[in-house]
């Protein structure tokens, strides 16, 4: 029969695999922001509420029955509250399906307590084991019950990036560790408020990727927390959504709660939130030259009959960054054509293994970052759909001096203005275009030389001349 698939917590079928990257984990250790901006965003998002009956769960009794059978197949016997905990549903939702399974002699109750059915212990009969095996042949998904596609659509609209509150103060905090031209925040702020696509362009080495990550950092800390389901049910198929490698959960998983707690008894939880959903920080998912068109489609595992959402769907409510745009294996035109409808209609269409299509929300800030000439990559029709086009150009002299000073401080090197004067008089004033990354890379070269020669790091004219000769050499 093969190995069953238990929910999405194992991250086994994560869309994009190692090719998708996230900065959520890199900033997860920072303390949550307690500012009024952050609190306002938190209040703005209404969570999905716990269903009080099977109709409100959006599931059929047959779907719940199959999940119960597969859960018991793997665990031999469980109390009613434990089954509810596995399915992340209140016991009153699964009580009627349990009764049907018992009446059909697929379950038996070897023991129980007089406080009610939630305390009964259930196990499969031989007929029940046969029915469970049949359920596994159809789909091996076991774990939190899926939410209906309609509920997912509604929640995505609630927590859309569009319309987020953004102030110069909060945006400045998110970019506090970057040295940028002074008017750049004034361009980025309206882009965040629009929640629409952003096209970052300009020569390499001037911080486009860092700016994109700064946007993600802003959404992580000031965009509030959003909700993503473990899985959704669409056109009769299971599509897993929550991916612990890409989504930073900020709640406690109810499965880790004691069996007798209020959460597992289905008598309530934090804010009466439906525990089929996880509360996460807004995701920031990054892909680069490895991006291909098939990575933007559902991934299907024929053995388990389970689909996994593509990475851009997992980015809903956050940022999806396509770095090094134009350097993918797939042609830029084909890649851009893939985004025309989602950018225009705010929906995307996915195709199941059966050939059925269904629509999903496209509620994210998609960021294209390129150091190639935009005129060679995109046509006017596509540029019209990109609401925010921001050029990240080379720094002027004052800006470069600030960057050089910043990197000296971070490396505990004494800054001397003459080092910047040397670079301009010997290189930048003679036709070489400065790059923001030059300061960092040149200082790393100087440190390497000093480490090898076992001498202290000082920005002397001799050392600057030796380092720049190596760093700026023509190949």
TrEMBL record:
Keywords: DNA-binding. Residues 194-396 form the AAA+ ATPase domain. One of its GO terms (molecular function) is DNA binding. This is AAA+ ATPase domain-containing protein.
């Amino acid at each position: 029969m093969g190995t069953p698939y238990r929910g999405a917590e194992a991250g086994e079928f994560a869309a994009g695999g190692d090719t998708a990257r996230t900065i959520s984990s890199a900033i997860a250790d920072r303390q949550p922001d307690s500012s009024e901006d952050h609190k306002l965003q938190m209040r703005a998002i209404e969570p999905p509420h716990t269903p009080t009956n099977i109709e409100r769960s959006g599931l059929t009794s047959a779907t719940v029955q199959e999940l119960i059978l597969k859960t018991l197949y793997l665990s031999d016997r469980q109390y009613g509250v434990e089954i509810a905990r596995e399915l992340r549903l209140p016991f009153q939702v699964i009580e009627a399906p349990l009764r049907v399974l018992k009446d059909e002699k697929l379950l038996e109750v070897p023991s129980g307590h007089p406080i009610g059915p939630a305390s009964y212990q259930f196990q499969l009969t031989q007929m029940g084991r046969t029915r469970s095996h049949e359920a596994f042949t159809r789909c091996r998904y076991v774990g939190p019950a899926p939410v209906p596609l309609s509920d997912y659509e509604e929640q995505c609209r609630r927590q859309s990036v569009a319309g987020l509150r953004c102030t110069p103060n909060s945006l400045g905090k998110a970019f506090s560790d970057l040295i940028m031209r002074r008017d750049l925040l004034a361009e980025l702020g309206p882009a965040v408020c629009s929640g629409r696509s952003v096209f970052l362009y300009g020569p390499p080495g001037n911080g486009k990727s860092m700016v994109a990550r700064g946007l993600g950092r802003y959404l992580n800390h000031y965009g509030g927390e959003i909700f993503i389901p473990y899985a959704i049910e669409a056109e009769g198929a299971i599509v897993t959504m929550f991916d612990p490698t890409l989504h930073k959960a900020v709640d406690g998983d109810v499965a880790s709660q004691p069996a007798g707690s209020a959460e597992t008894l289905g008598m309530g939880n934090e804010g009466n939130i439906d525990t089929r959903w996880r509360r996460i920080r807004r995701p920031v998912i990054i892909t680069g030259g490895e991006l291909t068109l098939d990575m933007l489609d559902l991934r299907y595992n024929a053995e388990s009959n389970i689909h996994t959402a593509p990475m851009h769907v997992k980015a809903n409510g956050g940022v999806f960054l396509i770095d090094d745009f134009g350097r993918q294996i797939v042609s830029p035109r084909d890649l851009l054509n893939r985004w025309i409808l989602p950018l225009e209609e705010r929906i995307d269409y996915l195709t199941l293994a059966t050939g059925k299509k269904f629509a999903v929300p496209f509620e994210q800030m998609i960021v294209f970052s390129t150091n190639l000439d935009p005129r060679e990559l995109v046509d006017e029709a596509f540029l019209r759909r990109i609401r925010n086009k921001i050029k990240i150009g080379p720094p002027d002299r004052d800006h470069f001096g600030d960057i050089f000073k910043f990197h000296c401080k971070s490396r505990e090197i004494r800054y001397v203005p003459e080092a910047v004067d040397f670079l301009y008089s010997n290189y930048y004033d003679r036709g070489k275009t400065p790059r923001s990354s030059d300061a960092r890379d040149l200082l790393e070269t100087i440190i390497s030389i000093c480490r090898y020669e076992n001498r202290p790091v000082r920005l002397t004219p001799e050392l600057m001349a030796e380092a720049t000769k190596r760093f700026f050499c023509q190949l």
